[in-house]
Amino acid sequence: MIETRFWMIRHAVVDENSRAILYGVMDVPLCETSLAAQGPMYAALARRLPQPAVWKVTPLSRTRRTALLIFDAGYPAREPGVEPDLIEQSLGEWQGLPHAELPAKLAYPQPPFWPLAGDEKPPGGESMVEVIARSGAALERLARDHPGEDIVIVSHGGTIRAAVAHALAVHPSHALHLSIHNLSLTCLERHPEGWRVTCVNEMPGY
pTM, whole model, 2 decimals? Predict the structure, then answer.
């Protein structure tokens, strides 16, 4: 297997009402006000991303729409493939809860930068441990299927943290300290010898 390069982008900001709740894998809309203001960021991503490349999105519309906006900003358009195993962490029965109602339900102390601790598993949902296993297996499969290629993936904050945790072989609690902003770029390389992380949370235009 030769080197495969992954270019992972977190989707654009979701709308204000959705940000007020735990939305997880709910199919929530993007924030139209933010989209109007972030045109230069899409253009910067269109210039930064490699050509040619395989494109993947998740089943949630916010990732597909983000990809289409990058195409509109100058990247040659194509039909992105859908990769279900790179979807956001499922919060199960806790999805839709206002953030203020979550702490009373937790079995572990709430970390400062993510709603759930790495080992916390919501009823009917996933723990970050499981997200790392799921997304890591997907990246390994994509590396086998696309040796030597560039793969652009529009995904989610939790999934990108999980991908970095897989690449670095770190505990889920460590991954939760990573900052992954909307529209940021994280780059991973799968070499025959193992994984290499080349950038995390790079903001377009900076």
Answer: 0.97
